[in-house]
Structure formats: structure tokens, C-alpha cells
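Retro notes, item 3 of 5
We never archived the inputs for the protoporphyrin IX containing FE complex last cycle. Fixing that now. Sequence and ligand:
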Amino acid sequence: MTETLVSYSLVAVYSAMAIYVLAFVLFTLDLARRSSPAPARVETSVEASSGSTRLLERVTTDAPADTKGPRYLRAAVALTVIGWVLHVAAAVLRGAAAGRVPWANMFEFTLTATAIIVGVFLAVQFWQDLRFVGAFVVGFVLIALGVATVNFYVDVVPLPPALQSAWLVIHVFVASLGTAFFALGAAISVVQLLQARRAAGRAAGLRFLDTLPAADKLENLAYRVTVVGFVFWTFTLIAGAVWAERAWGRYWGWDTKEVWTFIIWTIFAGYIHARATRGWRGSRSAWLAIIGFSAVVFNFTIVNLFFKGLHTYSGL
Amino acid sequence: MDAPEPEKGGITQPRLDFVGYLRFFWRQLTSMRTALFLLLLLAIAAIPGSLVPQVTSDPNGVIAYKRDNPGIAPVLENLQVFTTYSSVWFSAIYLLLFVSLIGCVIPRTKHHLDALRVRPPKTPARLERLEGFTTRPSTVDAPAAVASAEKLLRGLHYRVQVYGDSVSAERGYLRETGNLVFHVALIGVLVTVGVGGGFGYTGQRVVVEGYAFNNSLSSYDSFNPGRFFTDSALEPYSIALDDFEATYEESNLDALGQAIDFTAQVTTTMRGEQPREQDIKVNTPLEIGGTQVYLLGNGYAPVVIVRDADGEVVFNQPTPFLPTDANLTSFGILKIPDGLAEQVGMIGALYPSTAELTSGALTSNYPDLINPTLTLEVYTGDLGLDNGVGSNAYALNTDELTQVAGRNAPEPTIKLGLGDRIELPNGLGSIELAAIPRFASLDVHHDPAQGWVLLFAILVVAGLVTSLFVPRRRVWVKAVTNKDGTVTLEYSGLARGDDPALEAAVADIADRHSPSPKA
Ligand code: HEM
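Structure as it came back at the time:
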């Protein structure tokens, strides 16, 4: 039974990945399409943004929602949705095979966390059109899934006593949610940096940027997404401490994983302060968001695999 | 939000006296820029401690690191890198950060308390410059429109002030309150963590099945008191380990022998109370006498009986062996200073489920006791117990000793199965493996401030959520009487801090106040 479910789960992962590849190609084609010689619309928007006040800003930023050739984009999103359904099915099957939540080792955690990343990316579209970061998000998820299936794969094994806790469910799930929002924030910040370069006249080649929101608008979007991630991360930190108190007999012991969770938290606290500090708004705070997310990835990969500590749950 | 940026006043003063310098320094320290700098510095300063083993979390790692890196270890030692999180430099950064934080929070609290009493500001002359500007024709005259707008905004929990033909409203003071709660709660966390560490203690004790331990200083194997610890903090109680049960995976071939559950069944006795039977598990510590008792490790403690040449028992007790792998291959030291013709020391290895490697060496292939073997290399000579050198229970200094049974001796290594009794070499006597009970290593923690830390942590999250997601905004409704006598209503708003929903909110107010003909 377990083995059947595990193999179904793997089939679902591989199918999801195949569909994500198509979605990635279409997201990229969409960016390329935005680079093709643009109609007059772009000129007006550039003009408006150069004289931008708070009020005018909106005029330029509605441009990407324009109807010209969004077929790639709609197809890309539709494929992402299909891929995501398979992806979620893979995680659920894996959980069913193991008889517990599917995030008890690195393979399972990567599988589930990437599903949450895509889920958050899709959900956020209802609030705000962020399809232009689709290539970044789906590309990142593809790489992560590739590494997970090739390098992190482990068979289903029972949970060691230290992981048998409700906190595994809460702490790790919320950490994944936080990671998803940080990922989205970082993706938007990358576009923001490109946009800032373009505004400074240094990214002439990247025509697709003309159709995307201006840097300051992107900064606001990145901020709103990232602070949600920050709240989840703060909760993760506290829930982790509560669990550590239960399992290891102290709520904080500067274990390597604890240290890195703290470092990430501090970087994002810095990010929030940077936005409120004169001279740090803009590209510098965007860099902090990207560095923060890089630290999240580092914490999950390098720290798990190569640093010594109590969090030896990779299963490798 | 009203972030108090440093005023530039300090710099423009031509000559600074001492107080002036102090004030200038204080302003710098409590500026947002400094807070940001210190936060990022703290993040960077925390990194070395994750790269190099720490004395507190991994003392053996530190010893190994020093052995393997003799060149750089002394330098790191001098820089306190092995104790990063209590080092002078790390402490300096976070203390400065918190001084900055306090210096920041106090004036902001004052400012906020004032703001709570001030009425919303006068309506700006030109609302069309502000956000979400909307106009609607009015069906009523100006005073009536203003009165209904006032009522509406009050109902939406705005603080409202009428200025002539306009209403000025503000809401979201909770945002700044949340921000202050967040920052103050951070201070609370730091202080309570410090207090807990200062007055608390942690102790470790290995208890063998059938034995008990008392919560007193002398009965701990190791003990770490806080700076302000006194003996009176030790609540007298005893814990007897009645039984230790370990469950291992038996069916899943990928995880054969993996531990699934550990349960220590104990009988606890508080002074003057009836004994109680309780369980301690990983993840479910025992709460007793203001302490938590954790099950952090386990292993085997073979009971060895040594008899002298006349058959008199000279040694009969369990000796905890250190597990070295997942199948509980364990090592331990037996020391018999008295009763035999010579002092005897033995280096033992225990294989709970004995298997033979192709090389002939023994190993264990399952953690439970299936067919245990105890092997012993026997030494004679001066154990050095009198001068204290040989006092480490898990080490035997063999430099001055003679091996009488083992790889380098005429007699082979002693091998004992459960219940076996074998003669010792040189007519010293005999040795018997009588039983192999389990031991549990218990960690006892006392942290008087732990609950407070949790409370402040919860306040941190509550304050954070409030301060990030409660919008703070001002909204104005103005009734403009036109030349022809008709009345036009104007609506607009102003965000204070991040407020993505401002325009929608203004539109909503306009809709409620004067539903547009379309709707
Ligand atoms: C222990 C160090 C600190 C941490 C971890 C920290 C963290 C944070 C976080 C997470 C926020 C965003 C949430 C909120 O608005 O409540 C924030 C906001 C803020 N902090 Fe801090 N803070 C620290 C120290 C300071 C210091 C020293 C100052 C004063 C200079 C300060 C001033 C502010 C201000 C003014 C805001 C509001 C920013 C805005 O308008 O977005 N903080 N802080």
C-alpha cells in the first residue's frame, strides 16, 4: 500500500514538473512578447511616470493588464494551475503513504513548501496581478523540485520520537508559508531592481520592463508581500522555540538552525526599517529582501546538509 | 508612521559642550538609521557562531575543533568565537540595539499619547490633491450633509471633528499602539530571558532502571546554575525509574530498528506527598516541583558481578555505557579499585544484537537486546583514583596499566553473554554479566521566567500584526456650496504608513454617504 501511494506520488511530481516546464516557457515567451516593438501606449506611460505624482502613478501601472497578446500569459497561468493541482496531489499522496504530514524530511519539505509557494503565487493573483513574476516563481520551483527528486529523495520511514509532535505540523507549515511570501517578495524585488536600472538608463536592452509597473510601485508590492512573510516567520521562530522547549529541554540554545532562523528574521526586520529610513528606500531595501530570501534558501540547503546541529532531519 | 528621524539640530550648533556631545550622540544612537545598522550588524555577527562549534551547545565539538585546527583555534578563542552569543562583541551589539530601542520607544510613546488626545487636523483647502478624491452631487444642504457624514464616520470608528462645512476624520491609532507594543515586548523578551537564565538552573543525571535520583546538588552528574542561583531553588523531590521501554520499527525494511518511541515510567515523590506513577517521553517532559524533566537519551547499563578468588562479591552494580550508534553499540569503563589482589580496570563494549563483520570484529545490527555480548579488555595496575586523575567515569588512562586480557595480552578479550560467568586471568577471580537494564538520561530544567518569555513573545506577534495590518488614515468629507446653490460633496483621504486599501475605503465612504445615481 505504502509503496503504491509513494509511486503514484512520484508520478504526480514528475507530471507536475513537466507541466511547470511548459508554463515556464510560456511565462518567458510572455516576457519576450513584452519586449517586441511596443505600441504608442508605452510612450505615454513612460511620460506619465516621469512626471509621476502619487496620483498619476496608477496610470502607468495598469499597462501590464492590457489585453494585447495576453494569450501566452493566460495559458501559462492555466498550466500553472494544472501543474499545481498535480503537485498538491503528489504531496497529499506522499502524506497518505507515510500516514502523517508530508514534511518530515528534506524531500518532503521541498515538495510541500514549493506547492505552497505556487499556491500563494496563484492566490495572490486575486489580489493583485503579479503574473509577470511567474517565470521567476515557476523557474525557482522547478529547480527546487529537480534537486529534491534527484538529490534529496528518501523513502518513507517512521518519525523519530523527537519529531512526533503537533509542533511539527504547525511550525513547519507556517515556515513554508513564510518562505512562500519571501520568495514572491524577492521575485518582485528582482524586477524592481531591473526597473530601477532601466529608469537610470542602464538596462536599455530589457524592453519588457516597459510594460511592467514602475520601481516604486513594485517596491510597495514587494513590501506588502514580504511583511506577510515576516509575520509568518516571527510565528515560526516562536513556535520553534516552544517546540524546542518541549523536545530538547530549552527554548533557545543557539543551535545552527536556530541561529539562521534568527539571522533571517533580523535581516527582514532590517528590511522593514530600511523602508522607513531615508536613503534606504528603493534599491537598497530591495537588496535586503533578496539577501533575506537567499538566507532562507541557504538555511534550508547548506545549513541542513553541512552544518552540525540538532535539526538533523534531512533523512540523508 | 511617525518615525522620529534624528533632527539635524545637533550638527548646526557651532560649538558643542559636553552635554551637547552627549545629546548629539544620543540622537545618533536612537535614530532609525542606527537601528537599521545595528540590526544588520547583529545578523552578520550571529554568523560565526553557526560556523564554529559552540561551548554551550556542542562542547565536544569545540574540543575536536581545537584539536583539528591548532593554528586558528587560539585566535578564535581570543575572539570568543567559541562562545559567540555571550561574547563581548555580540553582547555589545545587541545591548546597543536595545538601548537604541528604548531611546526610540520612550519619545514615541509620549508622542503617541499626545496624538491620542489631539483632534483630527483641519480639513485641507484642496482635497483634490489627496488620494481617492471623489465628488458627488448632494441632495441635501451643506449642514445636513456634514451632519450625516459625521454620523457615518463615527459609526466606522473614526475620530471625527467638524470644521465649518467639512468633516475631518482619522482612524488607526491602534497601528502605532501595536508598533509600540511590539517594540516594548521585544525588550520584555530580552529582560525575561536574562532573568530566567540568571535564576534558573539545568542539571543532567543518568538513572538506571530500578534506581532513583533526588533533586539535590550532589546527585547531579553535571549541573549548570544561573548567575543568581542559590541551593534553595532546588525543590526536594525524587524520581525513581521503574521501567524504560523502547519501541523500534520492525516491519518497514527501509527503517528497520529505527526508534519509534521511548517511554520512561517513573515514580515521583514530593516531600510529604504520596508517590505518583508517571511517564516521561520525548516531547512530553514531566512537570514537577517547578521544574521540567526531559528524557534526552538512553542506553544500556550492564550489571557486572566481580568476585575475588574466594568467590566473595567485590563489585556488583550497573555501569551506564555510552551509545555510539543507532544500533546502540556502546562503550563503558569498569573500575574495581578494591577487593581483588590488584586494582583492575576494564574497557568494555556492549553489542545488544551481536553480529560478526567479515573481518571478525563484532558489531550490533539492532538496538534491542536480541543476543547481547559484552566484551572486556582487562588491565591491572594503579588506576590513579587516589590522586583524582582517574576520576572520569568514561575514561581509563592505560599508560601505567598492564593489559592482562585483550588484543595485546596473552589472554584473549573476555566475551560474556547474558548470564555467563568467566574466570579472570592471573587467578584474580571471576566476572559475571548478571543483567542488562536500561538507563535514561534525564535533563532537569528550572526557568522561573519561562512563562513570561512566552507572554512577551505572544505580545510581539500581536503587536506586529496590529502595526502592519491596521491601516492608519485620514479621511475628509467637504460640502461645497456652488454658485447656483447646489451642493457638491468632496471626499478624499491620506494614508499614514502603508495603506493599500485607502482608495477603496474613500470610495466606500462616498457610496455609503451619498449613493451615486448609478448604483
Ligand atoms: C531590537 C531591535 C528591533 C527590531 C527587531 C525591530 C523590528 C521592527 C519591526 C519588525 C517593525 C515593523 C513592524 C511594526 O511596524 O511594528 C519595526 C518598525 C519600526 N521600528 Fe523597529 N525594531 C527594532 C528596533 C528599533 C529601534 C531601535 C527603533 C528606533 C530608532 C525602531 C523604530 C521603528 C519604527 C519607527 C518603526 C515603524 C516603521 C514603519 O513606519 O514602517 N525600531 N521594527
